[in-house]
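User: Hi! Is it possible to get a structure for several chains at once, not just one? Here's what I have:
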Amino acid sequence: MKFRPGQRVRVAARPHEGHHRTPGYVKGKTGNVERTHTSFKNPETRAYGTDGLPEQQLYLVGFAQRDVWPEYRGDDDDRIYVDVFEHWLEEAE
Amino acid sequence: MSEHGHDHPHEPITGGDESGAAARVRSLEELLVEKGLIDREDVRRRIDSLVSRTPADGARLVARAWADLEFKERLLADARAAALELGLDPGPSPVVVAVENTEAVHHMVVCTLCSCYPRALLGLPPDWYKSLTYRSRAVSDPRGVLSEFGVELEDEVELRVLDSTADIRYLVIPRRPAGSETMSEEELAALVTRDSMIGVTQPAAPASVA
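Assistant: Yes, the chains can be modeled jointly so their relative placement is included. Here is the combined structure:
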């Protein structure tokens, strides 16, 4: 497992053709690893008839809403949590 | 639908009022049955099982957690194991996560990519949960959405939105309502609504179900 709880991570900003489970609104955004779940078959390859191996570690990553939506109307402490697979995450300062 | 190029006779597989998606699913089902990969009885059993689930199972988990703090700790640590402990089926996802609403923190759940939902514990998701409007606004304007559901959060309450984009299923443990202190576990379960376990409403007040 590459990342640990509390670590700062950035979601890769890369485009991706075809099925993937990384929502566009967090691409390029920096957050914190909240939980390390477990590993799962990779939905990006499994969607096209392969076995989805090797499995990918899944993390719950938390972001400040203000970092995700510049126009966010709620409170400064509000957060958005997204499940992100390891190959979409980069170490951030 | 277009011609599909096989030569055995059968009734048309689409009805006049079927949506495009339903017609595609029926075609797929026809093909899978024809190739012997599934049989119709499997399909019927799966549908039966999906539609037979109700939020009552989730409500039992929450009511037990309200009544038994040690159980709540186990539910928060591993919701799948906690469901099994009560003899409930937590569903096919290997990880089910329960999150607790408190005075200081409010959680709500969305699936922006599709309609991921803890179906085994809550039944089929409501139509609004699958709507594009909820899926987009729950992440970008969650306080606005909550307000439309009748929940006005104090500014000092931290709002956490969970977007279940992958294989994890999330269940909210709502705040136990004031006035429910002497209620039995069964009475407590009646306060736990489906929407409160998605985190878009508070549970029912004791007087409203008394």
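Residues 113 and 165 of chain B are 6 Å apart (CA to CA). Residues 20-34 of chain B form the longest helix (15 residues).

User: Great, thank you!
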